[in-house]
Amino acid sequence: MEEKQGVKIGMPIIGGLIAAILGGIVWAAIAAMTEYEVGLIAILIGALTGYAVVLFSNKQIATVHKIIAVLFALVGILLGKYLTVVYFTSELFGDVSVMELVFDSEMISAFAETFQDYFSQPIDLLFIVLAIVSAWQIPGRMARTSLASDASSSDHAPRA
Question: How far is CA 70 from CA 58, 109, 139, in A?
Fold first, then answer.
């Protein structure tokens, strides 16, 4: 989490992690309320992680920041899927709470064994790709916007 070639990555990693956790929880909460997984949430997770990385890097964006945003978007999607499975499993068995299952080693193993099933539909893959694109593009666009606004404000500076 140190600086790499003058680029700060520690805080953007923290921002990406926070965004991934929040995005995963929102994904599962919406799935629990609607009893349906809304794939568009994946795109929002990508956008959220991209924005968080930009915010936590003070708009000093490098390629490594885009990679961080993409990785945490994938983490958020994975967490959302896992929490959704945990919720519906707890509903199925009724006598087990969500919090008991979240950290249950059998639940984690079962999810890992059936991991491919949760991401096997073409629509799932489409939303994952769109989330990756969002997470990659937002930091670049926000950095360019920041640079453009900095340049335009310096163009209008009074001259002595």
Answer: 18, 25, 10
The amino acid at residue 159 is R
**Which residues lie closer than 8 Å to 156 by C-beta, 6 or more apart?**
none
| Calpha distance 46→126 (Å, rounded) | 13
Spatial distance between the Cα atoms of 142 and 137, rounded to a whole number of angstroms = 9
Taking the CB of residue 73, how many other CB atoms lie within 10 A of it?
A: 32
Distance of CA 114 to the CA centre of its chain: 22
The two counts, helices (H) then strands (E), for the chain are 7, 0
Residue 102 exposed, middle or buried by CB count within 10 Å (0-12, 13-18, 19+): middle
Dump pLDDT digits (tens) for 70-103. Answer: 999 999 999 999 999 999 999 998 888 889 999 9
